Amino acid sequence: LFKKYAAVMPYHGDVIQYQYWKKKYQALLETQAQDPSYILGMTQEKSNLRTYITYQFTHGGIVHLASNIWFLLIFGAFVEKLFGALII
User: Fold this and answer.
1) String of DSSP letters for the chain
2) Which of 1, 23, 40, 59 is close enough to 54 for a disulfide, judged by CB 3.0 to 4.6 Å?
3) Nearest CA to 61 among 35, 29, 30?
4) What is the pLDDT of residues 38-47, one digit of tens each?
């Protein structure tokens, strides 16, 4: 709700500080709009199964995703060797 009403609510106080805050707030919104985890992830406006799954893979960017895949490949091989393969 804060993001929804913050920019449009009337403000009566230090105008210079408010303008500074508003500029920083706009920069935050622009950064969020470019971040893959925000675009593909869960937000208050959009939270469904698809966004939940895409957020799990993109929450840290492409380098984070690649390192998770690499770790899973190495760690998963040892776990499979310990417990055996799951045969369905």
Assistant:
1) -HHHHTTTS---S-HHHHHHHHHHHHHHHHHHHH-HHHHHS--SS--SHHHHHHHHHHTTHHHHHHHHHHHHHHHHHHHHHHH-----
2) 40
3) 35
4) 666 666 666 7
Q: Is the pTM of this model over 0.90?
A: no
Q: Which residue has the tokens 């390192």?
A: 67
Distances 34 to 8, 41, 67, 74 between C-alpha atoms, Å = 23, 12, 22, 32
Q: Which two tokens stand for residue 9?
A: 């609510």
Structure tokens at 31: 């950064």
Which range (12-21, 33-42, 48-57, 71-80) has the least confidence? Answer: 33-42
CB 42 within 8 A of CB 55: yes
% of the chain residues with pLDDT over 70 = 82
